[in-house]
Specification:
There is one protein chain. The protein is mainly alpha-helical and 170 residues long. Helix content is 59%, strand content 7%. The chain has six helices and two strands; from the N terminus they run H-H-H-H-H-E-E-H. It has a two-stranded antiparallel ribbon with strand order 1-2. It is elongated, with a radius of gyration of 21 Å.
Length: 170
């Protein structure tokens, strides 16, 4: 059964039309986009599961790969990944325990931790990125077969109040 053929979706579409004047075609388009996004996310996640990686672990590996040969602190990883420091610490800890990352104490008082890829980490990153990009290319090929999109329902530009420029790392 198609998700948009359920009683719940039909009810929501009817309520949207009655309460907000929402066109059924617009509501269906949003539900279909959400379902497509979930399916794409599931496919991309599958590429990571084959390598026993979470999305955040993959992000950490890719960031370290991109910033090599410079070692990176957990704070920098957290900032670049857009994740909390504690989440990044968990991802780094797991990758360290599996031998994919190396860590050294640095700084004047040796409290600062610097993280870098090991050879095993580089190999894992290369394999995971290759699989991930293959899935991404397959999804992109399917998307390119779709008709040209209609104008957006909302303005995609951020309002000046919500836009924050984050400078790149040195």
């Amino acid at each position: 059964m198609n998700r948009t053929d359920t009683l719940a979706i039909r009810t929501l579409l009817t309520m949207g039309r009655q309460r907000l004047g929402l066109e059924e075609s617009q509501g269906l388009a949003v539900f279909n986009l959400a379902a497509a996004g979930a399916a794409m996310g599931h496919a991309l996640h599958g590429a990571l599961v084959r390598h026993r990686l979470t999305t955040l672990q993959f992000d950490v590996l890719v960031l370290l790969f991109a910033l090599e040969p410079r070692p990176v602190t957990p704070s920098e990883l957290s900032h670049c990944a857009g994740a909390s420091r504690s989440s990044v610490s968990g991802a780094v800890g797991e990758l360290l325990s599996r031998g994919h990352l190396g860590a050294v104490r640095a700084g004047e008082d040796r409290r600062q931790l610097e993280i870098s890829l090991t050879e095993s980490g580089r190999d894992l990153t290369e394999a995971a990125v290759t699989d991930y990009l293959q899935v991404l290319a397959g999804l992109a090929a399917k998307v390119s077969d779709l008709p040209a999109p209609s104008p957006p329902l909302v303005d995609p530009r951020p309002s000046p109040e919500t836009f924050t420029f984050v400078p790149p790392l040195p």
